[in-house]
Amino acid sequence: MIRSYLKTALRFLLKNKTFSFINIIGLATGTLCCLYILLFVQDQYSYDKHHKNANDIYRVTSALEITGDKHNNSTASPPIAPAIKRDFPEVLQFTRLIPTGMLGNSKNLLKYKEKSFYEKDLVYVDSTFFDVFTYHFDYGKNTKDILAQPYTIVLLKPVADKLFGSEDPVGKTISIDNGFGKHDFKVNGVLDEGLGKTSIKANIFVTMRSGGFGQFVLDNTAWAGYNLASSYIKLRPGANAAALEKKLPAFLDKYGAQQLKALGMKKVLYLQPMTSVHTTPNYEVEMNPAISPTLLYILILIAVMIQLIACINFMNLSTARASKRAKEVGVRKVVGAGKADLIRQFLGESFLLSLIGVLLALPLLYLVLPYLNGITHTEIQISFLNHYSIWIMLAAIVIVTGLVAGSYPAFYLSAFEAIKVMKGNFTSHVSASGIRRSLVVFQFVLSIVLITGIIIIYSQLNYIKNKDLGFDKNQKLILSFYTGDSQQKMTSLSNDLQQLSEVKTVSRSNEYLSQFIGRDHGVFLSGGNESNAVDAQNIDVDEKFLKANGIKLISGRDFHIKDSLKTLINETLCKRLGLDPQKAPGTRLYSQYLGGPKSYVDVVGVMKDFNYNSLHGEVKPFMLFYNGDPNAFSFMTVSVSSKDYKTLLGKMETVWQKNLPGVPFEYAFLDDEVQKQYEAEISLSQIINSFTIMAILISCLGLFGLAAFSAEQRQKEIGIRKVLGASVAGVVGLLSTEFVKLVAISFVIATPIAWWAMHKWLQAFAYKVTITWWMFAIAGLVSIFIALFTVSFQAIKAALANPVKSLRSE
Questions:
Q1: What is the pLDDT of residues 715-760, one digit of tens each?
Q2: Residues 6+ apart with CB under 8 A from 384
Q3: How many CB atoms lie within 10 A of CB 616?
Q4: Tell me, what's the pLDDT at 395?
Q5: For the purposes of burial, counting CB atoms within 10 Å of the CB of 340, is it exposed (0-12), middle (13-18) or buried (19 or more)?
Q6: pLDDT tens, residue by residue, 673-682
Q7: pLDDT (average), residues 760-782
Q8: What is the pLDDT of residue 612?
Q9: For residue 477, what are the CA distances in angstroms to 130, 513, 579, 634, 661?
Q10: Mean pLDDT score of the chain, rounded to an integer?
Q11: Residues 619 and 570: beta-carbon distance below 8 Å
Q12: What is the DSSP string of 787-805?
């Protein structure tokens, strides 16, 4: 029986090549997109699941509120994790990690013998780090004392390979020079990330017992401030994390109540499952950017939509060509086939097409994998088919697609009455035609929603790109100085760069605009105290910072050389302090920490608010401190005026090598750095663009097939109309009008859905584009154009056909 069904199915597919081609290509394309999206989503949810007893590992996070400002930190104060381990027996181990990149130390100079290069992502860790987290060691052993000794490190394999080549690195000594000083370290191990992906972004693991900043963390007793430690705990098997979390308010009150009260701070500790870190965004500080679950849900929805569109093509074409198979059904019923037999046959054909689509999608996926990985900025490996879960996924796609695509045609075709179809008076049911129209409407609703999404996302990204940020991001070069030796050469380098005709201004600072600013403290007016201080982010700059970045003053003056204890504040801080911006210059601001001595600075000017961070959030209180120490800076902003960057960069590199011989010349453009803040949105735009094109192509294939069928069914009507004088344009309009009406209905349904979805997405931005009517109008016009373009091929072909051929049998 199965063999007979298979033969019949193959015979039908080969006989109806256009029908088969449209369905197979549509299903293959849909399956390719669906499979890749599912693989991508699975990959994103796989982070940190490889650690031993991963479900028992939690990150300690902090929610802070300081004088009305709320902060959601992925970090905690240094003493919190050790104290949790000490106070709660259900905690098996703790560890902390300090990413030095968040502290302005973006790169480190590594030296071994004659080799030297810059490397990023150096982290300080407790000696217990590898008790909590699981890595595969290529060299050395994961023992409890691997980072117990002072000045010991573990390297990631790519870094070790660059330094040592094929040598065994264990026991070797390397030099690391960065913003914290220059030290020698003993390599105790080399690890790789072969066990799985992790949210912990690190290339160099340095024991906390290395003096300097590591020792500062070990000795730190701040329970309210210094929320800079990524803190993790590992629970004993069977321990209840929710119950432990409920104990944390009393725990924090026990140790930190006095400090919190002195700072006027509210603080709540939470336990976040380690396996959810990568898919929980919106923390202010993250080593590795988290991905939004909303994006993953959108992608899954797009995958389902694309596969549904392919299934709808199959349904429509199968029911549209029902008359071609009516007599086959009649004959089978006459010779004894029951309805269940026919349903099994037609479902079998659907499963066969689905299977062929999957088998065709797999090699296509291998071919386009690099392109798709480039869009999603990830690395789905070609070896993914080695995992049993992928085969389960493929089987599920075949079964679900086969059932969804084949169910309606199977029940529809099997319901034909044998006597009527054998007499040759079969006519298509009105209900089938109505359902086909409904399915076409559904296809175009999905397409219009996706097209509208593209338009609004592009509009938002364009708005971000062109919005006045309050500073000038164009023609600005950022130079970084990672070591103490290079920082001492900044003055001479600045003087030499200033001699270049293309260079307008050179400024130095300890951070540059668009980057995360990790330093903040409370300031208050005379008569106030630290409990009612306004928390303000701040950076140290020289006297040329405003000029180099195009920041405007609304009152007061800029910094002068040899200023001392002077500050510039933004409008937001001015308002939060209750000051009149025009009268604020000359005001003295105080700062104090935990009852210690007060320090002060004098306001010399008020800056017009500018978006020093991304447009996801509103402008916060912000200060610039003047620092006259020429060796206190890590970054240089070079404002230039040039159309020939190649020549300018060549000149700048020559000046660089003169002052810093042997140090690599590295630079970044400020406008590119600003744009990097929106990588998630840019990635989403590229993903939706690519998969929307796929969805539209699949819809067009189905529409093309339906148009061909419609032209075939109305062949004699068209012939009569032409004999009676109908023009080619009139016939084309006749065949196209029905489909245009369906697209118009789709537009009416899709518009509110698209508005709701994109309105929700835009809520993530403090500054956003206004959704207007023309965005939906463009989506509707594009859809109508696509429909007309697709249908017109068959319509023109039918209109140009010789009417004699269609009427000669009448």
A1: 666 666 666 666 666 666 776 787 788 888 989 999 999 999 888 8
A2: 39, 390
A3: 17
A4: 82
A5: exposed
A6: 888 888 777 8
A7: 87
A8: 86
A9: 40, 12, 35, 14, 20
A10: 83
A11: yes
A12: HHHHHHHHHHHHHHS-HHH
Backbone angles phi, psi at 110, to 5 degrees: -100, 135
Give every CB contact of residue 699 below 8 A, 6+ residues apart in sequence: 309, 313, 443, 444, 446, 447, 786
Q: What is the mean pLDDT of residues 625-645?
A: 90
DSSP-based three-state secondary structure for 82: helix
- 3-class secondary-structure state, position 522: strand
**Alpha helix stretches (DSSP H) within 467-522:** 484-487, 490-498
pLDDT single digits (tens) 24-36? 787 888 888 888 8
The answer for residues whose C-beta is within 8 angstroms of residue 724's C-beta and 6 or more apart is none
Contact indicator for 166, 255 with CB cutoff of 8 Å: no
Between vectors from CA 291 to CA 393 and to CA 512, what angle results, nearest 5°?
A: 155
φ/ψ region of 338 (left if φ > 0, alpha if ψ in -120 to 50, else beta) reads beta
pTM summary value: 0.82
- 3 state SS of 503: strand
635 torsion bin: left (phi>0), alpha (psi -120 to 50), beta (else): beta
CA quadruple 495, 498, 504, 509: dihedral, nearest 10: -30
What are the C-alpha distances in Å from 95 to residues 185, 218, 238, 273?
21, 12, 20, 15
User: Token digits for 788?
Assistant: 């007309």
Residue 93 to residues 85, 89, 234, 412, 463, Cα–Cα distance (Å)? 6, 10, 5, 63, 48
- Please calculate the CA angle 586-589-595 and round it to the nearest 5 degrees: 155
Average pLDDT on 177-187 reads 88
More confident residue, 383 or 696: 696
Which DSSP letter does residue 224 get?
S
Question: Tokens 């300018």 sit at which residue?
Answer: 648
Q: What is the mean pLDDT of residues 235-254?
A: 94
How many residues would you count in the chain? Answer: 810
Phi and psi at residue 645, to the nearest 5°: -70, -30
Taking the CA atoms of residue 30, residue 33, residue 34 and residue 40 in that order, the dihedral angle to the nearest 10 degrees is: 180
Contacts of 16 (CB under 8 A, 6+ apart): 321, 324
Residue type, 557: R
| CA gap 173, 202 in Å, rounded | 20
